[in-house]
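Below is a filled-in request sheet from our internal design queue. Each sheet records the structural input a requester submitted and the sequence that came back. We keep these sheets so that new team members can see what a complete request looks like end to end.

REQUESTER: design group, bay 2
PRIORITY: normal
MODE: inverse folding
CHAIN LENGTH: 196
BACKBONE (tokenized):
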């Protein structure tokens, strides 16, 4: 704090000396319009302020060097901090990338599993509709009391209910085998004569 005030005082003295020298030089130059060599441009003598100017210049150079050093140190600190952040960010980024891979894989597997299950449901529904439609379309089978159930997990088609004859039971099973390709047919139909 004291250094700053002494520097300010020195700079003020230099400025005042410069103004005084400038004014006296201007006055002499004006008075010397006739070319009198006695009043030529002033050159400060060491006793008249040259020491003050040199001292101020020296102090200004010192202050400039200190500012430069401070700027260099600040630059180094910022550079070091940037390197430190970069070095610390690398493992975190690698860890995030490493942790993201299993999550992405799991999401992909879940999506694949969901699509597979949806496909199973669609396939089971198609098989159910194909078999039921074929049974209803066949005129040799009374399908009004036949239920068609699908177990998509075991790929089994169950024929349940009643038919009036053993021949209709066999025909219903044959139709189900033809229409439900890739499914096991479980014929649980009961033969029961219906009253006329």
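RETURNED SEQUENCE:
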């Amino acid at each position: 704090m004291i250094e700053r005030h002494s520097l300010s005082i020195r700079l003020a003295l230099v400025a005042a000396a410069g103004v005084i020298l400038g004014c006296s030089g201007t006055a002499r130059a004006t008075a010397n319009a006739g070319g009198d060599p006695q009043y030529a441009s002033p050159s400060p003598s060491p006793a008249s302020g040259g020491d003050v100017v040199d001292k101020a210049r020296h102090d200004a150079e010192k202050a400039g060097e200190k500012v430069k050093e401070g700027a260099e140190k600040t630059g180094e600190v910022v550079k070091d901090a940037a390197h430190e952040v970069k070095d610390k960010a690398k493992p975190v980024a690698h860890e995030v990338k490493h942790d993201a891979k299993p999550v992405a894989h799991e999401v992909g597997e879940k999506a694949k599993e969901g699509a597979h299950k949806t496909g199973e449901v669609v396939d089971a529904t198609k098989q159910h509709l194909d078999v039921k439609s074929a049974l209803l379309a066949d005129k040799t089978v009374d399908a009004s009391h036949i239920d068609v159930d699908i177990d998509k997990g075991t790929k089994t088609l169950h024929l349940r209910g009643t038919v009036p004859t053993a021949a209709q039971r066999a025909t219903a099973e044959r139709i189900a085998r033809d229409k439900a390709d890739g499914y096991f047919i479980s014929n649980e139909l009961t033969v029961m004569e219906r009253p006329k």
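SHEET NOTES:
- Confidence is low (pLDDT under 50) at residues 26-33.
- Residues 2-76 form one domain.
FILED BY: M.R.
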